[in-house]
Amino acid sequence: MKIVSKSLVILGLSIGALLTSCSEEEILEDLTGGCIAINAIENYSAALERYGNDPSVENCESLKAASIAYLSALDDCPLIEDADLEEALRDASETNCED
């Protein structure tokens, strides 16, 4: 059975909820003080959608990579606690996509 970490699911749901209620610019300001690249969010969101529609190993690996890239983009953001980011990166890196 594929295991997608709780942090990845929560992150995806949070972004999804925010995307439906705020403009993209407001989301970036609220989440990170405006210090994240838009394409990191778009790539993560697309990978999350692909995995949701087809939870294959390939899509899981894509989601894992997009998660790590997104979290890495948060590294210099003043609103993100280093310990929280390290934990999320560790969880994303340890995601098991194998059956």
TrEMBL record:
This is Lipoprotein. The lineage of its organism: Bacteria, Pseudomonadati, Bacteroidota, Flavobacteriia, Flavobacteriales.
